[in-house]
Amino acid sequence: MISYEGWILITGALVGMTCGIVGAYLILRRMAMMADAISHTVLLGIVLAFLVTQRLDGIHMLIGAALAGLLTTFLVQWFHSKGVQHDASIGVVFTSLFAIGVILISTSVGNVHLDVQHTLMGEIAFIPFNTTNLFGLEIPVATLMLVVVFVIVLGFILLLYKEWKLLAFDAGLALSLGLPVLFLHYLFMGLVSITTVASFDAVGAIMVVAMLVTPAASAYLWTERLSVMIMLSASFGALSAISGYYVAYWIDSSISGSMAMMTGVVFLLSFLFSPTHGLVAKWIRPNKKKNDEKAHA
């Protein structure tokens, strides 16, 4: 029987691993700000899915989030193709769609457990109380959803690893080789969307940005191989979530906030001590070279 604390740790680790895997491609494709945009605009998809079904759980939430994420991606690309700067396109689209979602929550949703505070910050401490029975085991609904999304994300990454690797490093070459670049792009944005909504209950819209971007940015400093970067990013995400829980317990603070803070701590350590890009390594190499030159002089 898994304890209350155990479910929180498992859920947090799943958030970190799933976001870490997806985040590795976001960093390589220089699309970190799209993660911020989609993590906010999926709110609109969640609200619309609720208005249609009157339920806050189920596959329709993932579908609504995916459609909202694809709409965000399409609008950003469309505005950019019409001459609007890419960063400006992201800013206009995500603030507008997010604002519509907030207005709908305030005016149409009513007295249900869906509010701006919940969707922005999340509350992982409440997750073990909302369970469903699966093969005789009481499993939190949010955790089960994260397991499903993790399997989906990992499956697509393994299935399309070579295609997305080529797309990440050289989209022009991928297009010249006849790969369906646009389809692959929108499929990946769909994965980002469902990853975001699956993480909502645990860490909220704002904190999921930290999980999508920071572990992958840390992993980028340690390796130049995509496969290693993906594994490191997932590991850093899980490590940040688990250590963040204990930090929150220690200082009596927000669990999701502490998890996000620990992603920053991992990044800082990577920035200082990674063997190739770390500040310490960059400081040691010139000094070592000077010492070697003096020794041979």
Automatic annotation (TrEMBL):
Superkingdom of origin: Bacteria
Subcellular location: Cell membrane
Coiled-coil annotated residue ranges, if any: none
Keywords: Cell membrane, Membrane, Transmembrane, Transmembrane helix, Transport
TM spans (from-to): 6-28, 35-53, 59-79, 91-114, 134-161, 173-196, 202-222, 229-251, 257-280
Alphabetical list of InterPro entries matching this protein: ABC_BtuC-like, ABC_TroCD
UniProt-listed GO biological process terms: response to zinc ion; transmembrane transport
Record's bilayer topology term: Multi-pass membrane protein
Any Gene Ontology CC annotation: ATP-binding cassette (ABC) transporter complex
Family of this protein: Belongs to the ABC-3 integral membrane protein family.
Protein name: Manganese transport system membrane protein mntD
Organism (species): Shouchella lehensis G1
